[in-house]
Amino acid sequence: xxxxIECSPPQGGRAVLLSIKPRYSQLIVxxxxxxxxxxxxxxxxxxxxxxxxxxxxxxxxxxxEVKSVEVASLTALWEFNxxxxxx
Length: 87
Hints:
Residues 1-7 have low confidence and may be disordered. Strands 2-3-4 form a three-stranded mixed sheet, covered by helices on one side. Strands 1-5 form a two-stranded antiparallel ribbon. The chain is 22% helix and 32% strand. The protein has two helices and five strands; from the N terminus they run E-E-H-E-E-E-H. The protein is of the alpha+beta class. It comes from Diaphorobacter aerolatus. Residues 18-75 form the ASCH domain.
């Protein structure tokens, strides 16, 4: 089995609300942070994410389109993140 399983977002995928701490949501909106790790993900395909900046901001700060979802081991995900310039 390859280290990554890439899933392109389907045309009719759903939109989800993702709660992220203000520090990281600001980096995402600024385009600095391009990868978000989650232990669990939606059971159905996702095409868009509304970014909710949690307390103390408590507001939606952006809407992003999902390019791909990667499922892999922790080591493989960190290597993938480093290739994208993440930390």
